[in-house]
Design goal:
Length: 157
């Protein structure tokens, strides 16, 4: 059975979150965005794509995506937004955090190296996050204090 993502948008089951543009004060790999599907949720999350970027032309950035990180502190809660723009829409059952603390990044799913002078990039990768699981994006900039962002889009079904 094929999943019709556009139909899930129409049914108000598509969501997004963003870290916003933030300074990352290190050149080490840094946990940046955590998407959690709580075990109390009865729906899976299908991550459809992400947009990542850095606001500095001279900075090379490595973005990595991980499954099942070991989270010690959630970080700062960030809003999840329904992509169906209307007066009354359901909230996401997922929760998202910026700059969590982890003792292990988890299982590496993929990585993307953005060379200098590549400010942002959309990445289409499909991942399913079952209830009780988490998805982590990390960042590694070649220059400390470069401002970066990460957006993630998903559907719940």
């Amino acid at each position: 059975m094929a999943l019709d993502v556009s139909n899930l948008v129409i049914k108000k089951q598509a969501f997004t979150t963003t870290t916003g543009l933030n300074s990352v004060g290190t050149t080490d790999e840094h946990p940046y965005l955590l998407l959690r599907n709580p075990s109390s949720n009865d729906q899976a999350l299908l991550i459809t794509h992400s947009v990542i970027g850095v606001d500095a032309n001279s900075v090379r950035t490595i973005w990595r995506a991980y499954a099942r990180p070991t989270v010690t502190t959630d970080g700062t809660s960030i809003n999840t937004i329904n992509t169906y723009i209307a007066g009354s829409v359901p909230s996401s059952k997922a929760v998202c955090f910026k700059e969590p603390t982890v003792s292990s990044n988890g299982d590496l799913l993929n990585m993307y190296v953005a060379p200098a002078n590549t400010p942002s990039r959309g990445i289409s990768r499909f991942y399913i996050v079952d209830p009780g699981n988490e998805f982590l994006i990390t960042i590694e900039n070649s220059s400390a204090n470069a401002s970066s962002f990460a957006d993630v889009y998903w559907v719940e079904w």
